[in-house]
Amino acid sequence: MELGLSLGDAGTGSKPFGFMEKSSKLASKTNLGFCMGLSIGPNHTPQEDDQDKEKRSNSDHKSDNTNTSAAEAETNKRKSMAEDTTDSPIQLDLLPNTPVPRNQNHPLTYLVSDNGNTSRGFDVNRFPAAVVHEDQGDQDVAALSSSPPNSATSSFQMDFCMYSSKGRSESHNEADQAERASSRASDEDENGSARKKLRLSKEQSAFLEESFKEHNTLTPKQKLALAKELNLRPRQVEVWFQNRRARTKLKQTEVDCEYLKRCCETLTEENRRLHKELQELRALKTSNPFYMQLPATTLTMCPSCERVATTSTSTAAVTPTATTTTNNQNSTADPTSKTTGLSLSSTRPRFYPFSHTQTHPHQHTS
DNA sequence: CGCACTTGCCCTGTTACGTCA
DNA sequence: CCTGACGTAACAGGGCAAGTG
Q1: Which of A163, A247, A269, A340 is positioned for an S-S bond with A324, CB 3.0–4.6 A?
Q2: From start to end residue, where is composition biased (Basic and acidic residues) (predicted)?
Q3: What are the start-end ranges of the H helices in chain A?
């Protein structure tokens, strides 16, 4: 596939794709190999930051698995809204707007170091005291629960805590699925049998989803706290986050593929158009000899303003890196054949094929 | 300091189960 | 009721990083 032969199309000349624009953000251990940033969604920030990992200390000790998912129907509806995050085929808005290194602004960091000063929106460690203080080992977590809750996520949490508290009244209507899952899980623990798939309740999923939005990886403390809050095994929480990350990545891959497909189509179309334009220029050359008496021209591009300055073949390029290379496809003296192919990794220039007399606004005087 | 070993987590792929049309 | 598609919980295996002796 031929790429980057651009002869000055006003419509598409201004960096239609933005290659590499976000490559630094995407440059992670799970890049696409193509290393192309996708700026489709304004909030898309794949955060697979491989910065320092939390020290792993705790093991997955089992917790009681009496599933408590008593939910009121209306709150169900409201919270399940948070779960629907993959509707758009283009934009993934599942992740936090600002990638957070694992050790920075991390709830666990708060637990270790702060005095209750650092509250971010949704924090799985900010549990209501009614739930947390039962375990004295989580006093630090309980202390955080006094942090001022934050807007929407906080209200969500508050509501959720109403029906997720262990001392809930029996008058609460438990979701059937959760109830069944709970009983199955309990049996499972008792029997110690092989895996039995149990579906998480909507509330559990929504809560996990909110936590995932906040941070897509878990520290051991967060995992334990979440498991305690949701009455799941830590292993379940861990698996859920693993699967959730996998789903996010899969979705992103689909989006990337779709985007690359569109890029390919666009470039193919542009290539076709440029070939046509080239043919027209050649026809013009034969029909208008005077036009071709102009000296051969080399197009050079200013890396800063992305404009093309024209110089004669005897003059030096503005910068070595900005010098366009010769298009091997056309070896004639046609001036247009001096335009060239820029690699995908470079910023797409705006070429002005007919600007033999055009002067550069920045006055590049080499 | 280097090395082997352990531990714990993550990623990837797969399996198995639940739900629904 | 049966069935296939789909979503997803759970698992397996390998890699990686940190801790430890």
Answers
A1: A340
A2: 52-64, 167-186
A3: 23-26, 73-80, 107-113, 129-132, 139-144, 151-164, 176-191, 202-214, 220-230, 234-287
Q: How far is the CA of A198 from the C1' of C3 (A)?
A: 22
Angle at the Cα of A200 from the Cα atoms of A199 and A204, rounded to 5 degrees = 175
Q: Which nucleotides of C are covered by protein (CB under 7 A)?
A: 7-12, 17-19
Mean pLDDT by 10 residues, chain A (366 residues): 32 33 34 37 35 35 34 34 35 36 33 32 32 34 31 32 33 39 40 60 86 85 85 87 88 83 91 94 82 55 56 39 36 34 34 35 38
Contact A218, A237 (CB under 8 A): yes
Question: What's the Å distance between residue A182 CA and nucleotide C1 C1'?
Answer: 27
Decide: residue A274, CB within 10 A, 0-12 exposed, 13-18 middle, 19+ buried.
Answer: buried
Q: How far is the CA of A238 from the C1' of B14 (A)?
A: 18
**Residue A62 CB closer than 7 angstroms to strand C?**
no
User: Dihedrals φ, ψ of A70, to 5°?
Assistant: -75, 120
As given in the structure block, the two tokens for residue A351 are 């070429």
A299: β partners? A310
| Residues 184-223 of A with CB within 7 A of strand C | 185, 194-200, 205
